[in-house]
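Progress report, Aim 2. The chain analyzed during this reporting quarter is listed below.
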Amino acid sequence: MEYQVIVVGAGPAGIFAALTLADLGIEPVLLLEQGKDLPRRKRSNAQDMLCGWGGAGAYSDGKLTLSREVGGSLGEYVGPGALHQLLKTADEAYVAHGAPGHVFGEDSQELEALGDRARLADLELIPGRIRHIGTENCRVVLNNLFESLVGRIEKRTECPVKNLITEAGRIRGVKLADGHTILSRYVVAAPGRSGASWMKTEAETLGLKTKASPVDIGVRVELPAIVLKEITDTTYESKLIHYSKTFDDKVRTFCMNPYGEVVTEKNDGIITVNGHSYAKKKSGNTNFAILVSSAFTEPFDDPIAYGLYIAKLANLLAGGAIVQRLGDLLTGRRSTQTRIDRCLTRPTFPQATPGDLSFVFPYRHLLSIIEMLQALEKLAPGVYSRHTLLYGVEVKLYSNRIELSPEMETGVRNLFAIGDGAGVTRGLLQASASGILAGKAIAKRMGKKLTEGQ
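Predicted structure tokens for the chain:
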């Protein structure tokens, strides 16, 4: 059997590509996913955390960033107006499938006042509206999306794709890991974060042009929620940028989780830290990442390897995640369990090993993180407390960015690449929007006439 479209990957990008194709009446469509169905995924399984129906977003806290400035580079392909409409369409689909109605950051006066205060602290606030689904609700929304596709497309989980098949510069289908070949007129590659290395290999094999993306390396900060309450009540997640005084490196906050918990992820045997927050269940702390962006020039062109090296070093020293009080870091001593027990910030991830992050981070990164904390102290007194906890390492690895057309088509005819795995997006909503964009492009190419609402 030959399909009209094969979608590789059932993360947000792949799901929304399939949903768009189904809504526009394209058939038959086959969605392939290397991981498990949603009910069979388990948080305790490292592979399940990143692979399966819903992708890595299944275990995130589901922040839908409605701002065009955050979450990826899709606007560079379609322009701000078209991106706004794509994000709006994707957001409406999430709400229709169970996402909550409330949006943080709607009050422009409060945001403007917070932005003014940030500037006085040598910080730039990126204003944004955020819909917070919540960790416990993400699976509900993803299950609703799954149910909405039943009977409209064919879905196969635990079915990894080995290679993309081309013929005379045009896509012809995919070869599965079990050796079987499936043909199709169009293929949408949406491998997500866990499939980034596969996408890179396929791009090299097919001769697709790519360029390396910067790597973000840093710590997850945990402190009493009251310290950032005024900010999180206004924006929920504040995106703040600082340029370090010593090295002029770009340092930013990322993934702020009011009343949330610190967690770990495991990918290819490497443990890194992250954070999430529930819609209803609350801790007494807020956590967020401070990330230092590092870009490299010739001769080094493998920022992903560099980021993983730093994470491996932390694992070597601690057997996993490291936690250190800021006061201990500043006085040049490691944290011990006794010192952590005396800390006024009670860790939400007590399994982290007390240690010394100065053995892990290069001087440049460590100093940039400290200078960011000092700037944040001016905006929110209490951030630079000796009782603030720092967990390491948090690493954000971004796929090599594939050269694409405004429709997300690669240099191979009828092969589209979308989402985080293609290096185009860095968040749930833009990844979903890229799926909508590719789905519409394929439908138009097949002769479907889209109305203004579509």
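The two ends are 29 Å apart (CA to CA). DSSP finds 13 helices and 21 strands in the chain. These observations will guide the mutagenesis work planned for the next reporting period.
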